[in-house]
Amino acid sequence: MRNWLIFLCLLCIACSGLRVDYDYDKNADFSNYRTYNYYADIQTGLSELDTRRLLRALDSVLQTKGIQSSEEPDFLINIESREFQMPQNNSVGIGVGGGGRNVGGGVSIGLPIGSPNREREIIFDFIDSQKDALFWQAVTSSNYNENSSPSTREKILNEIVGKVMMKYPPRK
């Protein structure tokens, strides 16, 4: 019974769905980046309401890190997203077969279980405003339910921003 419970806990953790990959310029001096702003023509790929939720969450986290919004920023932020459907991996196979001596035959059918998963990828680019060069990037991938309530959407976007900014600035 205890092993079963541990297995379920691990399964839930593994299926939490939020993954973040980071990349940055190892020569960048992150102490020089104290002010930020967003690209004027930012096209996040999110709804207008979700874009506002995401930007509010990002503003909040950046300010707690001592990085302020400015009209003449040290770096600009660009955010892009896309939604896609993951292939369905769960299925049940049903087979019928027969044979005798040297003759054999069979039929097999795979029946899908559950509904396909929708995923959303959000890319955060931090670009040096003087050099016009990317110096830090985070790519998130998470489960997505387009029918989520506004409070659930806000909670999910806050989690995404929190996890993304956990590793900014990177430690050398």
Shape: globular
Taken as a percent bin, the fraction of beta residues is 35-45%
Low-confidence stretches: 4-15
Helix and strand pattern: HEEHEEEEEEH
Quick one: biggest sheet?
6 strands, mixed
Total beta strands: 8
Counted up, domains total: 1
Radius of gyration equals: 23 Å
Output the number of helix runs: 3
CATH class: Alpha Beta
Average pLDDT number: 82
The assembly state of the depicted protein chains is single chain
Helix content: 25-40%
Strand order of the biggest β-sheet: 1-8-7-4-2-3
Structural class: alpha/beta
How does this structure look, described?
The chain is of the alpha/beta class and 172 residues long. It has one domain (18-85, 116-172): 2-Layer Sandwich (Double Stranded RNA Binding Domain). Helices cover 27% and strands 38% of the residues. The protein is built from 3 helices and 8 strands; from the N terminus they run αββαββββββα. The strands form 2 sheets. Strands 1-8-7-4-2-3 form a 6-stranded mixed β-sheet, covered by helices on one side. It has a two-stranded antiparallel sheet with strand order 5-6. α2 (48-64) runs parallel beside α3. The longest helix has 17 residues, at 48-64. It is globular, with a radius of gyration of 23 Å. The relative contact order is 0.22. Residues 4-15 have low confidence and may be disordered.
